[in-house]
């Protein structure tokens, strides 16, 4: 149901600083300036659906994204719905069950924690240790791969 060409497109969410999530989308190809979009999401089917409280707006004042705080994703899937209206009529809804590990949600990681470097002149060797960064949903440190760039100063 809803008017053709009004559904959103290119829905993407990015998690950063462990518990913040930005979701953005492109407005529908036939969306006029009076098209209103509303985003709802839930980290699981068992939890309540939450409406965005902090929308990102375009130059026409249309919602084209949302910023969420205190996000926790414990499960493999999250649920998203974007619906709305245009001129008092419903638009095409966008509804997705999203596997957070493979699709649409990206997490920008914080740097590794407690980095220590111990070098010995006698052996000309250094030992570098760190702890995995905090993440919103990855629990296994084996999921991370690191690259070390050593600069000689």
TrEMBL record:
Keywords (A to Z) from UniProt: Glycoprotein, Membrane, Receptor, Signal, Transmembrane, Transmembrane helix
Transmembrane is among the record's keywords: yes
Transmembrane residue ranges: none
Location of the protein in the cell: Membrane
Principal location listed in the UniProt entry: membrane
Gene Ontology cellular-component annotations: external side of plasma membrane
Domain Type I cytokine receptor cytokine-binding: 11-95
Database matches in InterPro entries: FN3_sf, Ig-like_fold, Short_hematopoietin_rcpt_2_CS, TypeI_recpt_CBD
Superkingdom of origin: Eukaryota
Keyword Glycoprotein among record annotations: yes
Protein topology in the membrane: Single-pass type I membrane protein
Record-level Gene Ontology MF annotations: cytokine receptor activity
Name used for this protein in its record: CSF2R factor
Organism from which the protein derives: Regulus satrapa
């Amino acid at each position: 149901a809803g008017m053709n060409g009004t559904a959103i497109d290119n829905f993407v969410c990015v998690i950063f600083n462990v518990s913040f999530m930005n979701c953005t989308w492109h407005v529908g190809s036939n969306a006029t300036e009076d098209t209103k979009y509303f985003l709802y999401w839930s980290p699981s089917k068992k939890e309540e659906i939450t409406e965005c409280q902090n929308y990102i707006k375009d130059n026409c004042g249309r919602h084209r994204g949302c910023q969420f705080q205190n996000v926790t994703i414990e499960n493999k899937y999250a649920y998203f719905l974007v619906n709305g209206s245009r001129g008092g009529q419903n638009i095409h809804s966008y509804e997705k069950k999203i596997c957070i590990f493979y699709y649409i949600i990206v997490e920008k990681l914080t740097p590794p924690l407690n980095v220590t470097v111990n070098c010995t002149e006698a052996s000309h060797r250094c030992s570098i240790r760190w702890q995995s960064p905090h993440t919103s949903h990855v629990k296994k440190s084996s999921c991370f791969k690191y690259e070390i760039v050593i600069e000689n100063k």
